[in-house]
Structures are given as structure tokens and as C-alpha cells.
Design a protein that fits this description.
Elements: E1 4-6, E2 21-24, E3 27-33, H1 47-64, E4 72-79, H2 85-95, E5 102-107, E6 117-124
Parallel strand pairs: 4-5
Antiparallel strand pairs: 1-2, 2-3, 3-6, 4-6
Length: about 130
């Protein structure tokens, strides 16, 4: 099996031993993105601002693989507070359109550096 890594200088740098995105078998697997900028600084205090940054990081990684948001078929969203779901959902709708990707949203006890959201995705290579 061939694995091709993808990264973007515009997206948040990895905070551990993992690839931001791996292409394999006609699919692109995007690691969970948190609301860090390209320098590794947290962006935003509200869930809307943090979700927007995490989704922007996903967009940068998709672009590094010559893809757009339209290629995304599945997302998983991790929230530290499910009360943030409505605001996150509004921002999410800014980034995707019908047919919507399949999605799971999970409440978690904590995320790196105390951020409120992490979003991972799977995309089909076009």
C-alpha cells in the first residue's frame, strides 16, 4: 500500500508524530485539525472562531492535495461542550454544501491546549 503525505504551510503544524493528511487508495485522510494558525497559536476564543480556523486548516490541507471541500465525504467533530453544537453547526454550513458529508459529532473531556473543537475528515481523490 502506497501512502502519500500532504501538508500545507498555511495549516497548523502537527503537534506530534503524525501526518496532517495521508493519501492512500484513492482517499485522503485528514488528521484532526484544531484552531491553531500556521505558527501553532490558538485562534479565537468563541466556538465559531475556533471552528472556522479548524475548517480553514482542513481547506488548506485539501488544497495541498489539489482538492476542495466538495471532495469531503465524512467528518468527525470533537467538542468539549455540546452546548457549542449550534454555533459550530452554523460555521460548518459555511464550508460545506449539499450533498453534505456524512458526519459524527462527539463530546470529549478535553482537547490539546484547551481548545473547544477538533475536526477530522475523509475525502475522495477527484
Amino acid at each position: 500500500m502506497i501512502k502519500q503525505p500532504h501538508a500545507s504551510p498555511k495549516a497548523a503544524p502537527p503537534v506530534g508524530p503524525y501526518s496532517p493528511a495521508i493519501e492512500s487508495g484513492g482517499m485522503l485522510f485528514l488528521s484532526g485539525q484544531v484552531p491553531f494558525d500556521a505558527d501553532g497559536n490558538i485562534v479565537g476564543e468563541t466556538i465559531a472562531d475556533q471552528a472556522r480556523q479548524a475548517l480553514s486548516n482542513l481547506q488548506h490541507l485539501l488544497a495541498a492535495a489539489a482538492l476542495t471541500n466538495h471532495a469531503v465525504v465524512k467528518t468527525t467533530i470533537y467538542l468539549t461542550d455540546m452546548d457549542d453544537f449550534p454555533a459550530m453547526n452554523e460555521v460548518y454550513a459555511e464550508f460545506f454544501e449539499k450533498p453534505w458529508p456524512a458526519r459524527s459529532t462527539v463530546a470529549v473531556a478535553g482537547l490539546p491546549k484547551g481548545v473547544k473543537v477538533e475536526i477530522e475528515a475523509i475525502a475522495m481523490m477527484e
